[in-house]
Amino acid sequence: MKAACWYGKRDVRIEDVPDPRIINPRDAIVRVTSTAICGSDLHLYNGFVPAMLAGDILGHEFMGEVVELGPGVKNLAVGDRVVVPFAISCGNCFFCRRQMFSLCENSNPNAWMAEKLWGHSPAGLFGYSHLVGGYAGGQAEYVRVPFADVGPVKIENGLADEQVLFLSDILPTAYMAAENCDIQRGDTVAVWGCGPVGLLSQRCAYLLGAARVIAIDRFPERLRMAREICGAETIDYTDGSVLEALKMMTGGRGPDACIDAVGMEAHSHGISFAYDRAKQAMMLETDRPIALRETIMACRNGGTVSVPGVYGGLLDKFPMGSVMNRGLTIRTGQTHVQRYMRPLLERISLGEIDASCVVTHRVPLEDAPRAYDVFSHKHDDAIKIVLKP
Ligand code: NAD
Ligand code: ZN
Ligand code: ZN
After folding, report:
1. Ligand 1: residue whose CA is nearest its atom 34
2. For the chain, does the N or the C end have fewer beta carbons within 10 angstroms?
3. How far apart, in whole angstroms, are the C-alpha atoms of residue 189 and residue 180?
4. Is 307 close to ligand 1, i.e. is its CB under 6 Å away?
5. Which pTM was predicted?
6. Which parts of the chain sit beneath pLDDT 50?
7. Does 289 contact ligand 1 (Cβ within 6 A)?
8. What Å distances lie between residue 270 and 203, 241, 277, CA to CA?
């Protein structure tokens, strides 16, 4: 089959690789009908995630048709149309039973690697380095889905791929990011980043009762989408101090909650950006936490900072004094996708939310190398790119 494979920094190739096969009784093989490139894939593409090996198959947002099932999967049938969550979860362990699916303790066969870096291991993830299992991803014609009796959600009501594809990741991620803000009626929520995760977080913040949403980015098209599709007020961070702008907009107090939908590759201007870029290049810090620092400094006293943005390792100049002295709460995590898929599918069916609004490009899987380049540089006003095998 054909698959998009990682070969190093900014080097994605379409390769012929062996078809996946059933290995365990609870596996399924899915023929992928739609898959997408995520902001998290860019951290792999740009070489910031350790333990990638040349030839690894990328992709953790995908859906398709079940073509083969292990004998342990009783709730699916060959021919079913399914969306697959990016976190691989057994459904039975301490964490799965508590609905913390991205922390499953049975799905990362390389847990020892993650334990070295993070103390304990989270769940295995599709297409996301050997640190979290080295599972082949879904930017391919076929994919093996472990624990297929737990993760995949059947789509039975004729919704189009693009309406449901993002149940695999960014819609639950945005929803959890907003839920983690513990939004009270009338709250103001500020969202750093107007990529797919940021935009959908803005939508979900309104859905959960925010009165005002303020969005921060620098790309005009993304800021336009934030205003016109998400109903947010916007700040272009290249215009000056975001902290000052937010104070002005909130009577000096600051937003009740701040969402970091940027993550480890934040961009900025001026001296602090040069500082983080240099330290990251010299491997003295793994992440550039520019947006995270800002979310903390901007949040009102006693407010919440919600971090869907992905971080890999060790951060520098983390304003812990601000967190502690001003009583902030920080909530974060890889999304517990399985917890949100069915309720959000219901909301999609009722027309309450439409995540397909972020799609700007649809290209054949063969064009993945160019699509990564375009999405990475935000060229051509690209916001979300769907690949069709
Ligand atoms: P993206 O790259 O399309 O969007 C990131 C946006 O942040 C860009 O528009 C960029 O211009 C903006 N940005 C950069 N620096 C900024 C700054 N200093 N201030 C404000 N905005 C800034 O990516 P995406 O797909 O929207 O993903 C966003 C983040 O969410 C990534 O880190 C991704 O890894 C993460 N993510 C996490 C989960 C999870 O389970 N927690 C799931 C999906 C994605
Ligand atoms: Zn993702
Ligand atoms: Zn589990």
Report:
1. 40
2. N
3. 12
4. no
5. 0.98
6. none
7. no
8. 31, 11, 11
